[in-house]
Prior knowledge:
Chain B: It is found in: Cell membrane. With 281 residues, chain A is an all-alpha fold. Chain A has helices spanning 9-31, 68-104, 106-121, 124-135, 139-148, 151-166, 169-176, 181-217, 229-236, 245-272, 274-280.
Amino acid sequence: xxxxxxxxxxxxxxxxxxxxxxxxxxxxxxxxxxxxxxxxxxxxxxxxxxxxxxxxxxxxxxxxxxxxxxxxxxxxxxxxxxxxxxxxxxxxxxxxxxxxxxxxxxxxxxxxxxxxxxxxxxxxxxxxxxxxxxxxxxxxxxxxxxxxxxxxxxxxxxxxxxxxxxxxxxxxxxxxxxxxxxxxxxxxxxxxxxxxxxxxxxxxxxxxxxxxxxxxxxxxxxxxxxxxxxxxxxxxxxxxxxxxxxxxxxxxxxxxxxxxxxxxxxxxxxxxxxxxxxxxx
Amino acid sequence: xxxxxxxxxxxxxxxxxxxxxxxxxxxxxxxxxxxxxxxxxxxxxxxxxxxxxxxxxxxxxxxxxxxxxxxxxxxxxxxxxxxxxxxxxxxxxxxxxxxxxxxxxxxxxxxxxxxxxxxxxxxxxxxxxxxxxxxxxxxxxxxxxxxxxxxxxxxxxxxxxxxxxxxxxxxxxxxxxxxxxxxxxxxxxxxxxxxxxxxxxxxxxxxxxxxxxxxxxxxxxxxxxxxxxxxxxxxxxxxxxxxxxxxxxxxxxxxxxxxxxxxxxxxxxxxxxxxxxxxxxxxxxxxxxxxxxxxxxxxxxxxxxxx
Lengths: 281, 307
C-alpha cells in the first residue's frame, strides 16, 4: 500500500517549518521582550546580533529602532490569520456556489458559471486593485477581498463532483429514502469530495499569502499600525544599501511558508487524489 | 470549423461585456462617478459638461449603454494628477510593459520547456530531481522578494547591474529574470508531465523500433503531441505575467503600466485605474482567445469535437 509509505524528507521539512511558523505566530510574542511599537532611537538600523549588533536585538532593528523579531512575529500573525480567513471564506463560498449550480441547473447554473468564467479570465490582483481603489482600503474589505480569491476553483470543483455524484446509486438511494438536499449535500456528498477540497485548500493558501504580501509590499494591503510580512519587506526597500535585514527576514519567512505549503500540497494531492495518481503513474 | 470559431468569439464578446459591466457597477456603487473621475475640486462647468456627455441625467439603463459606448471608443476620462486623457497616458506607458513581458516570456519558454523535456527524459535521475526542485523554488519564491535579492546582490554588492529604470539592455535583465522565474517553473513542471505521458505511447516505441534517432523522436514525434497542455499552461500564465508585471515594475521602477496602476491605486486616480483595468482585461481576454484558436490549429480533434 502506497498510503502506508512514510513521508519523504522534503515533506517532513515542510511540515516542521509550518508547525514552527504557526507556533511562533501563536506564542512568539510571549518571549519577545519588546512591544511592537517600542522604539529605541539610539539603536536605529542595528545589524543582527550575529553580525556585530546588540544581543538585545537578535535579528537587528529597523529605521526607528524597533526590534525585528517582535515585528516579524506580529507580521507572521497577521499574514497567517488573514490568509487563513481568506482561504476559509473562499472555500465555503465557492463550494456553496458549486452546490447551488449543480442543484438548480438551468439558468441559475449558467449565470453562476458565467461569473466563475469571468473571475477566472482576469488575474485576481487586477480585480483586487480595482476594488481597493474605488472603495478605499479597510481591514474588513481586505479580508473579504482575500476571501474572493480562488472561490471560482472551488465552485468548479464542487459543481463537477456533485454532478457526477448525483448520478451514482448512493445519492439516488439517499434521495429515495426521503433525504432533503441539505442532508444529501452536507452528509453524503461533502464527505466524498472532502479530499479534493482539502487539496485545493493547500493550493489556495500559499497563493493567498502571496497575494496579501504582494499587496502589502506595494503599500496597498495591510496598513499601519497593523503589520504584515509584506509590509515590513516593502518598508525595508528604502534601506537596502544600509540595512538589508529589514527586507530579507520577512522575505525569507514568506518564501519558507509558501514553499512548505506547496510541498505539502503536492504530497497531499498524490495521496488523496487517486485519480490523478493513476493518470500520471 | 465555423462553429468552433463562432463559439469562441461569442464567449469572448460575453466576457468583454462582463468586464465593462463590472467596471460600471464598481463605478456606480462606490460614489458619484463625476467626483470619481474628475476629482472633488473639479470646476462646475466641467462637471456639467461631463454629466451631459455621459448622460448622467438619463435613466440608469441609458447611462449604462452610453458608458459601454464611451469605453468601447477608449474615452476613459482624464487623470487627476495632470489632467491628461487617460488613454494617452496608457499608450505612453504600454511599450515598456510589452517589452518587459515579451522578454520575460521568451526567457521563461527558453529555460522552462527544455528543462521540462530534459527532466522527462531523465525521469527519476538526479537531473530530474534537481530541475523539479528548482521549479518548485521558482514558483514558491515571491517575485518581489526575488527582485529585492537580485538588487542586493547584483546592484549593491557586486555593482554590475542597475537597480532601477529602463533604457538599456542591462536595465532589462533583472526585471525580466524576476518576472520569468515563476512562469519558467510552471512551464518546466507541465512540460515534464506532458512529455512523460507522450513518451510512453506505443508510437514512440514504434519510432524507436524503426530506428529513428533519439533527438528526432523527442523533437518531431513527442514534442508536437505534448504541445497542447504546454500551450494551455502558457495561456493560463499570461494572467500570471500581467499580475507579476504589476509587482516587478514597482520593484525595479520600470516605467510601464503595472507601475502606473500601483501609483494610480495609491493616489486613488480612479479614471486611470478604470482605464488600465479595462485595457489589461481586454488584452487578456483577446490573448486567451488566441490561445483557444491555437488549440484548433494544433489539434484537429478539438475542431472536430466542436463541430
